[in-house]
Every structure is written in structure tokens, then in C-alpha cells.
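Quick note —
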Amino acid sequence: MTDKKIIIIGGGVIGLGIGWQLAKAGAAVTIYERAEVGRAASWAAAGMLAPLAEAHSEEPELLKLGCESLDRYPQWTAELEADAEMSIGYRVEGTLIVGLEPDDTHQLRHIYEAQQHLRLDVNWLNGREARDLEAALSPRVTAAIHCASDYQVDNRRMVTALQRAYEGSGGVLHEKSGIERVVIKDGIANGVQAHGDFQEADIVILSAGCWSAQIAGIPDAILPPVRPVKGQMLALQMEEGIAISSVIRTVRARYPVPVYLVPRADGRLIVGATSEEMGFDTRLTVGGVFELLRGAWEAVPGVYELPILETWTGLRPGSRDNAPILGKTPIENLIYATGHYRNGILLTPITAYEIAKLILTGEISEIIAPFQLDRFLRQ
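Predicted structure written out below.
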């Protein structure tokens, strides 16, 4: 138990997860969220838990972090569902990465060889074997990689559950309440200015996603190098004859937007996502939606007949090296938990457990040590 007073800036899954763990340990936790809780990147995500599918493009430390967080998902799910008294839609059907033509197969083979080099648990399938797993796949699918242990969670349900669990543990939540600045005196963060008043804290945690670099009061030299990366997405309604259970990802050598299709238990099929350096622009574009629909149709032709339920955009918080920024800063009592880019949902358990442990014990674990802010300050 602890009697620490903690302020968290940002109420997405990262801020809520850390807050929930600290409130359970007896800390007095207050979250300030500039808009509605969990309705930014956390709400826009697809909920894929896919460290293996993306391993070919990741640094070894980030792959290790992702795999460790995935390993903790069963514990996280059981604890969160018990506290929130609701399901978060954790599913373990696995992921298929598919290619539709010879150039795709060449790229897919390159990915598979990189995964083999990393000794990951993946299997190569021909087109027929892939369709045996997912009958809705196009007959044009020539090959696939099966990542049996890449899972998914319903990120929107997880947002709701985390808010319930956090407030149920005594956490205080201020929505539509951006802070004016972090208050730092003599190199020590001792609170925030909010609604014109000083709010004192023993620890200030910055988990404001792509807005983290815009928080006033933090010295320019240590502002987290985090930027927004736009993703356009949509949801379809699966109908009889188009039953998908695995997450399906495409490799398309000729097209700019590889797509993924993520089936939900309620019958929705999430299709995403573009990756655009457009600042804070959240407009949907014809080109973005067209590329997503074309990619989805080529992989699963039956989507042509499905109704579109929803379209949206999200802003991923990308750091300079697209890995998260976790842990202590040169300002005493100022902790960062931001910059999770494409992996915010995957990395929520490891971030919440390890940042809470850091605050409660003062120990930074080996698993998050490589992701501290000082990696940028040394450059």
C-alpha cells in the first residue's frame, strides 16, 4: 500500500491502466483528460496483439517488450474482467498474413525468414492450407504465414472496463479537463496547474499520446519527441457466408496500404489502416477509404456485399524511433508513458504493471529500461 498522490495527464488505455494499478495499491490518483476518456487512439485502434506479425520490422528490444506484454495478457484480462465485471473480448484465434500474387509471396518469404531467424513460432502455409483455416479468403491467395499466438482484444470494451476498474478502485477522473501546465520547481515536478488552480502531486505521469509534446511547463530539451500519425479505418457488418475468425493481414507489394481485417464477437469486421504523416488532420479521404476497401476485397472478396457500419480516423503517438518512451526523466518525479505508436493496446499491460512498479518501489525493470527518454538525450 502507498499514500502517494499521483496525477496522470491523459486518459487513454495507458493512463487508465497505470491509474487503475496505482489506485488498487492505495495511491490517491487523479487523471486529467483533455477530451473524453479513451476516445482518441485507444478507441480508434483495431485491438491486434501481434508482436510476431510485425517482428520483421521491429528492433529486438521492442519485439521482446511486445512478447512479454502479450504473455501478460491472460493475467491482465482475468484481473481487469474481475474488477470491471465485464468481458474485454480477448480472443486467441491467431493471425494470418497473406499474399495474393508472386511479388507478395516474395515479400512474405522475406518476412518469414526474418521471423525464423528470430526463432518465432510461425508456420508457412500454401494457399489451400490458408483457405482451410479461413474459407472466406480469396482463391488468389498464394501463400500465408500463420502466427498462431498473435491474438486480439476488443479495445473499446477494454477502454470501458479500465474506466470502470479505475473508478471502482477509487481513482478520480476529470474529463474535458486539459491541464494548463506541469509545475516544476528546482528540477522537481510537484503538480499541475488545472482550471486556474495548483494541484499538488508526489508524482506526475505524462501519458497524453500524440499530444504529449504539447504539454506546457516541461522544458523544451526533454519534451518527448512524439508526433501524430494518422490512421483511417472502417467497420463492416459480417453476414452469413462471410465468417472470419482469425485476424487477416495482407502483404501487397504493389499497393501503398497493406490492410488488416479484425473480426469481433459482435459481428463487426474492423478494416484498417492507413499510416499518414498529416499532423493533427483527422479527415477521412476518398483515397484512404478506397485503398482500405480494395485491399479488404482482394483478400476476402465477400466483403463486397457487406454493409459499412462506421468510418473513423485515429492519431497514433509515434516517437522518433516509433518505440514507446517509458520511465523516469531528468525532472524528478516526472514519469513518461507515451509514444506507443501502433502498439498501444498490445503494450498496455506491460506499461501499466511496470510503471506502477516503478512508482511504488523505485525500481525500473530490465524490460522497460531500454525505452527511457535518455536514449534520445544521448544522441
